[in-house]
Design brief:
- It contains eight helices and nine strands.
- With about 200 residues, it is of the alpha+beta class.
- The chain has a single domain (about 1-195), classed as Aminopeptidase, CATH 3.40.630.
- Helix 4 (about 55-65) packs across helix 6.
- The structure holds coenzyme A.
- The site of coenzyme A has 26 residues, from helix 2, helix 3, helix 5, strand 6 and helix 7.
- It comes from Dokdonella soli.
- This is GNAT family N-acetyltransferase.
Length: about 200
């Protein structure tokens, strides 16, 4: 993915030290969400997804690279159809939750969601970040929000399926404290999971 969007070399030359790269959540809520600052100083807004996000979701999807789409949905997909976007924007709170990170214009720059599995007191998650904003702490902010929401629901585990070749996501999840395990029936996938009973998961590092 990094090769495909051609951003990795520039980023590695200009990346500030790790501590400064972390997105910081700001206490003030503005423009329909909680403001936070990306590592490169942009202000984004974190909020639950809304029914009127359909068109913004479709535009956000259109900005993803083909590789990001494959990493997110595991197959080729050229467009987010209105029907699917409608489903994604209307989350049944009993079944899950979804959050978006928007810019000041309301464009969706990151999206993350969880689906609760009541059989195991856990939830499956997935996320994607606008290619122009990867490596800036947006994914980390979104995952922390999912962890908080999962704990609020009393869940003990949050897991996601990741393509085995998606080293960026695997490393990203590991840095946030996730463990990995093979998926015997799907050798192309790795299951990453957060133990929500561990207080270190989701804590500031
Ligand atoms: C994986 C993904 C969600 C990460 O989101 P992100 O916003 O880039 O993540 P963050 O910026 O919070 O990254 C956290 C760490 O990874 C590093 N990182 C993330 N993307 C990077 C990139 N493209 N190049 C270099 N480093 C990167 C960050 O610098 C940061 O490092 P640190 O922990 O040492 O501070 C994003 O790359 C993405 O949308 N991938 C495609 C979809 C996908 O794979 N989804 C997973 C299916 S569940």
């Amino acid at each position: 993915m990094q090769g495909m969007n051609g951003m990795s070399d520039d980023r590695s030359r200009t990346r500030p030290p790790r501590r400064e790269r972390r997105a910081r959540t700001a206490p003030r809520s503005r423009a329909g969400g909680e403001a936070f600052t990306t590592a490169d100083g942009r202000t984004l807004f974190l909020r639950p997804i809304r029914p009127d996000d359909v068109e913004a979701l479709r535009r956000g999807f259109a900005r993803l690279t083909p590789e990001q789409v494959r990493q997110r949905v595991f197959h080729r997909m050229t467009e987010l159809t209105p029907d699917v976007a409608e489903l994604l924007a209307n989350v049944d709170p009993d079944k899950g939750a979804a959050y978006v990170a928007t810019d000041a214009e309301g464009e969706i720059r990151g999206e993350a969601r969880l689906y609760v599995d009541t059989n195991v007191e856990g939830a499956e998650f997935a996320l994607v970040v606008d290619p122009e904003l990867t490596g800036q702490g947006v994914g980390r902010t979104l995952v922390r929000r999912l962890i908080d929401e999962s704990r609020r629901r009393g869940l003990s585990e949050l897991w996601g399926f990741v393509l085995a070749g998606n080293g960026l996501m695997l490393d990203f999840a590991s840095r946030l404290g996730a463990k990995r395990e093979a998926v015997p029936e799907e050798p192309d996938l790795v299951r990453v999971h957060f133990d929500l009973r561990d207080p270190r998961i989701g804590a500031d590092d």
